[in-house]
């Protein structure tokens, strides 16, 4: 089997947590089935893809504009041309709602479908995206989602498509838990040797980063400790504005902003943290929360639907989603080591129960079922 993987939604120069997960998943599948070949479709400017398994290759597509119309052109013409050359048995497209029917079965990964399933976006009907969303599902041969909430909503809205919708739990397979000595090294390298709270995710206003800064200010006033705050993630359209706000922040010297960290750096930052703080307004794929739980790091998170679905009661949800609520939870986890330990133990048990199925093996099964139709 030859599987074509569209990497264009995940630029290497600005790789999101969902992109890291998606690429890691492909490498796991390639390792499991050395008799299959996997081909990445990527733009030429994104050539720093790293070391790949022997059965994974890259087919580069000429650069075009990065706007929506340019992207549509890319998938209508450049990718269509590439698929004719590559002659694959299946195309895997993640969060790609404009993939054209090229006579090859498409497996559509929905990693941020929550945002597209909302009835409204900033108070306005988001009809064009919803129409593209439903059309993409109808055209796909297989659809993989990672949220039971989205799974049920898709089946309710498109009942005739229910048989093709698959549900998986996205437990990262390669998240390390650091030894004490390695944690100390991470703290020295990233936080001057001090303990630190960490936010890991896209550097976008939807993650409520200003609220996080306010919560950290309250925490520092209450505790008078040397605790640091690290904010790490991929650059977005609102990152520069956040950087300007951070420049005048009272505790700026105790905040380390890390833009576009590598996968390895992000893993170390998560595994070395005292706690992960995740004040997202909404997020369809908060995989960094699962990484923290896997690494033995407690999580303080907003009560976004996917967070509660994936994590249950094994992470801390502030009483309120404002700065006061997060500050109180940060203080609580800082002052009560037993509570912190209890959440770590509960999270590991939760993941052991939820993550019994191998995600890569299940994806391969879905691919094989689709080709066999």
Structural write-up:
The chain is of the alpha/beta class. It has 2 domains: 183 residues, Glycogen Phosphorylase B (Rossmann fold), CATH 3.40.50.2000; 175 residues, Rossmann fold (3-Layer(aba) Sandwich), CATH 3.40.50.2000. The strands form 3 sheets. A 7-stranded parallel β-sheet has the order 3-2-1-4-5-8-9, sandwiched between helices. A 5-stranded parallel β-sheet has the order 12-11-10-13-14, sandwiched between helices. Strands 6-7 form a two-stranded antiparallel ribbon. Helix 1 crosses helix 14 and helix 7 crosses helix 12. It is globular. The two termini are 14 Å apart.
Topology:
Blueprint: E1 2-6, H1 17-32, E2 37-43, E3 56-61, H2 68-86, E4 90-94, E5 106-110, H3 113-117, E6 120-121, E7 124-125, H4 127-139, E8 142-145, H5 148-157, E9 165-167, H6 180-191, E10 196-200, H7 209-223, E11 228-233, H8 239-247, E12 255-259, H9 263-272, E13 275-278, H10 287-294, E14 299-301, H11 305-311, H12 323-335, H13 337-354, H14 359-372
Parallel strand pairs: 1-2, 1-4, 2-3, 4-5, 5-8, 8-9, 10-11, 10-13, 11-12, 13-14
Antiparallel strand pairs: 6-7
Distinctive features:
373 residues; alpha/beta; Rossmann fold; 2 domains; seven-stranded parallel sheet; 14 helices
Percentage of residues in DSSP E strands: 15-25%
CATH topology of the largest domain, which one? Answer: Rossmann fold
CATH architectural label of the largest domain: 3-Layer(aba) Sandwich
Tally the beta strands. Answer: 14
Major β-sheet strand ordering: 3-2-1-4-5-8-9
The name of the CATH superfamily of the largest domain reads Glycogen Phosphorylase B
Our count of domains comes out at 2
Shape: globular
Q: From N to C, what is the helix and strand string? A: EHEEHEEHEEHEHEHEHEHEHEHEHHHH
Gyration radius, rounded: 21 Å
